[in-house]
Task: inverse folding
């Protein structure tokens, strides 16, 4: 009796805490409705399964508790029930997986006209490199990294000199697809913007990617989501989404590679 | 295993310390694992104190926080859960449940324990060396774990950690070979594979998995040790640390992640499968009803084991590996939910129309079902690749693996310890303290870990020393963190009640009957309790029926032990599907 009541109270408490909405998604500020809906479908399906299975558990424990002269039914098997339950489960899995995989295929296919920005992680900050007027990021090589050339850009690449650097903030124009090229200087970090629902590890020796479209003007936050040493919990960066004109103005004020790296 | 009966020669030392009796070795494994687990528990208290009351404890700084976090994870997963389920339960139950006198290789078995103890000593030594233990996270991802001063404990600490793991793997291999051989070769007359209790099936399949999975960790661990000690670059590309170019190049950090998770995911099932088996036996015995769908249960465990080897990269969806792998690993991961769900349904159907005795082992058995349900279900969004993108490395993951691999597994372990305590010690535990232990642990586990799912959905990253920097947290989050910390301290305190109950009851508890639960399996049919070295007296038992003849229609009592001969008057309970 006590067990069933407590279990029901736990389920009710869990549901109440969830629908109180105090801790829930941050308001979405990117195009990734698809991610939210795939996640939401999954959460609803597992939420229903959680409630139903626990209520069944509470019921059977109460209904079939030991009483004098009770005897259990000898019921070792029932292939029919098992097949039905396997069928229902498989159907549930398909319902979760199908929209998820479609959304994922969009997530890994960036549009061609995306604005390319490089994100560089190091212990314990994020810096950014934007293409200059030529629209192309210059080549970079980790072996060229030095205090004067923190991105390790290849100065022999003509596309590199006009690249624009930001050591503090990530500014983005609203409504334009952005493709991030993510690198790390030292250990693994992970560039996570909760309001955009996007995350990818920054791995030394590799360039990783993701894309999104910022849809809301405002200030957001990028944080590190992979343990990277004692400053991990402080490794964050402002993300500012603004009108295209404001973005262009800001960009024009930032230093170029030619101005900072070359003496 | 020869048929000669074991004779005790020598005194205290050969009987209790350097014993080759599987039961003594099981107790040694269990006590060592519980003690190291208690240490891991205290570490979790300190972690929670920092998160609930940031800045209030001077000795907890980011460095020591990450060291404790790393050690807590490694201790609990490897040195507590793996060791107690295979070394503890595996050792005690396999020979007794299959009617053997001992393990196939008793000396190797003893050696396995001592090598395990050595690995624990090396692990603990890291707390005493300069720089302390490693703080690179229990996943030990390089380059963080491979470069000097990148993480706390990068000198002695990481090296001792890796050496300890390598030693542990040696111990686990000795044990695993023994368990597999014993199950295959030492079953008594009549004990066919499909008559074995599910506890033995779970331990057996988990041992096979461990033998396939641990070598990957061994390889990765040795390579990482070389990167640390010899300056090799297996996992290290060109890097610039603190403004200095390091003389390393050409390595790949993702290689380690593949090796680690090729071990790490099967490792989850190395813990879960024995727990599933134990829980099945608790639920069947104490509901006085045969386990529902025995054959399906065995097949489901085998399927989980097989698929469990091809899901590892779901830990790496945002690691930078080829994104097209995401499709395959999402599908394989969600498929594994089907055999897992079958197990849950079958436990519920076992309870259905049962005669449920809510004693302490059964409370934990039912607690297992509930915590496995929520822990398992919350794995689905993490496996569904696109849903994992926002949730990865957040508190959602922390809640998920703690409930499924920590709490659920511990429910089975606690239930199992209470269940077999009368056989192991010959005494009963204190029922009231046992129930107190259950209630605090069960309710407290939900209080600790359920809110973490909501924090994860909000986007709170895991492994944060404090959350001050996060600008998107609602103001109530402080109160929530304090509540979680209070719950964690309370649940921790309940484990002290458990340990106290074990010690007191082992010494002073009421004498137990040979078969207090009315169980069918062989370990309850030994001529003496606790069973002596050699287990069975003059002759090993003969098995006539499956392990689940509970409440057989027409039978006088509601259980028929496996070694009771089939006579015309007693109907054979075995269903046609398993005969």
Result:
């Amino acid at each position: 009796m006590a067990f069933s009541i407590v279990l029901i109270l736990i389920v009710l408490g869990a549901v109440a805490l969830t629908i109180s909405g105090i801790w829930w998604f941050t308001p979405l500020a990117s195009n990734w409705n698809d991610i939210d809906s795939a996640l939401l479908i999954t959460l609803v399906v597992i939420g229903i399964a959680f409630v139903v299975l626990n209520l069944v558990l509470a019921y059977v424990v109460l209904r079939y508790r030991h009483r004098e002269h009770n005897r259990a039914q000898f019921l070792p098997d029932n292939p029919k029930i098992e097949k039905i339950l396997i069928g229902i489960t498989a159907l549930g899995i398909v319902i979760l997986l199908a929209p998820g995989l479609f959304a994922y295929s969009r997530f890994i296919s960036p549009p061609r006209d995306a604005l390319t920005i490089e994100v560089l992680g190091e212990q314990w900050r994020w810096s950014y490199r934007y293409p200059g007027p030529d629209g192309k990021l210059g080549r970079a090589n980790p072996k060229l990294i030095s205090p004067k050339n923190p991105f390790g850009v290849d100065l022999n690449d003509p596309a590199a000199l006009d690249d624009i650097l930001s050591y503090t903030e990530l500014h983005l124009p609203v409504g334009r697809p952005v493709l991030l090229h993510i690198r790390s200087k030292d250990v693994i970090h992970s560039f996570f913007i909760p309001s955009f629902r996007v995350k990818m590890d920054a791995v030394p020796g590799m360039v990783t990617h993701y894309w999104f479209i910022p849809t809301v003007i405002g200030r957001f936050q990028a944080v590190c989501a992979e343990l990277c040493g004692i400053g991990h919990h402080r490794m964050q960066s402002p993300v500012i989404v603004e009108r295209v004109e404001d973005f262009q103005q800001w960009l024009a004020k930032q230093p170029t590679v030619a101005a900072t790296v070359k003496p | 295993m020869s048929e000669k009966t074991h004779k005790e020669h020598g005194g205290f030392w050969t009987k209790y310390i350097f014993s080759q009796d599987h039961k003594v070795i099981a107790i040694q494994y269990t006590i060592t694992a519980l003690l190291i687990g208690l240490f891991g528990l205290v570490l979790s208290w300190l972690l929670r104190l920092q998160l609930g009351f940031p800045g209030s404890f001077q000795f907890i700084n980011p460095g020591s926080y990450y060291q404790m976090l790393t050690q807590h994870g490694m201790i609990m997963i490897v040195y507590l859960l793996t060791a107690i389920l295979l070394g503890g339960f595996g050792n005690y139950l396999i020979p007794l449940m299959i009617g053997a006198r001992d393990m196939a290789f008793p000396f190797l078995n003893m050696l396995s324990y001592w090598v395990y103890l050595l690995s624990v000593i090396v692990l603990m030594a890291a707390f005493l060396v300069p720089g302390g233990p490693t703080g690179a996270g229990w996943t030990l991802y390089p380059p963080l774990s491979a470069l000097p001063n990148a993480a706390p404990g990068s000198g002695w600490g990481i090296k001792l950690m890796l050496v300890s793991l390598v030693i542990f793997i040696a111990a686990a291999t000795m044990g695993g070979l023994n368990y597999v051989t014993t199950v295959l070769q030492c079953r008594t007359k009549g004990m066919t594979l499909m008559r074995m209790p599910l506890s033995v099936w779970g331990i057996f399949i988990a041992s096979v998995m461990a033998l396939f999975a641990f070598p990957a960790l061994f390889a990765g661990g040795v390579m990482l040790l070389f990167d640390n000690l010899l300056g090799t670059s297996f996992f290290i590309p060109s890097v610039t640390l603190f403004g200095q170019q390091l003389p390393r190049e050409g390595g790949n950090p993702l290689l380690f992640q593949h090796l680690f998770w090729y071990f790490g995911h099967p490792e989850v099932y190395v813990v879960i499968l024995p727990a599933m088996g134990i829980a099945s036996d608790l639920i069947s015995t104490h509901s006085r009803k045969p386990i529902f769908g025995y054959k399906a249960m065995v097949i489901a465990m085998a399927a989980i084991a097989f698929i469990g080897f091809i899901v590892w990269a779901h830990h790496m969806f945002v690691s930078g590996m080829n994104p097209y792998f995401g499709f395959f690993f999402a599908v394989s991961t969600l498929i594994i939910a089907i055999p897992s769900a079958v197990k849950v349904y079958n436990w519920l159907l076992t309870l259905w129309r049962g005669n449920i005795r809510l004693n302490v082992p059964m409370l934990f058995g039912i607690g297992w079902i509930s915590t496995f349900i929520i822990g398992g279900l919350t794995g689905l969004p993490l496996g569904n690749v696109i849903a994992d993108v926002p949730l990865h490395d957040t508190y959602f993951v922390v809640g998920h693996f703690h409930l499924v691999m920590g709490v659920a597994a511990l429910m089975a372990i606690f239930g199992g310890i209470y269940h077999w305590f009368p056989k192991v010690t010959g005494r009963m535990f204190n029922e009231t303290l046992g129930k107190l232990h259950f209630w605090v642990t069960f309710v407290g586990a939900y209080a600790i870990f359920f809110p973490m799912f909501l924090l994860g959905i909000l986007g709170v990253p895991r492994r944060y020393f404090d959350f001050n920097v996060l600008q998107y947290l609602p103001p109530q989050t402080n109160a929530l963190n304090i509540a979680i910390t209070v719950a964690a301290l309370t649940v921790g305190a309940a484990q002290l009640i458990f340990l106290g109950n074990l010690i007191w009851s082992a010494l002073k508890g009421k004498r137990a009957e040979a078969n207090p639960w009315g169980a069918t399996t062989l370990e309850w049919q030994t001529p003496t309790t606790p069973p002596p070295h050699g287990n069975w007296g003059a002759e090993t038992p003969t098995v006539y029926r499956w392990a689940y003849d509970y409440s057989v229609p027409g039978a006088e009592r509601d259980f028929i032990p496996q070694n009771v001969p089939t006579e015309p008057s007693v109907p054979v309970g075995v269903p046609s599907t398993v005969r």
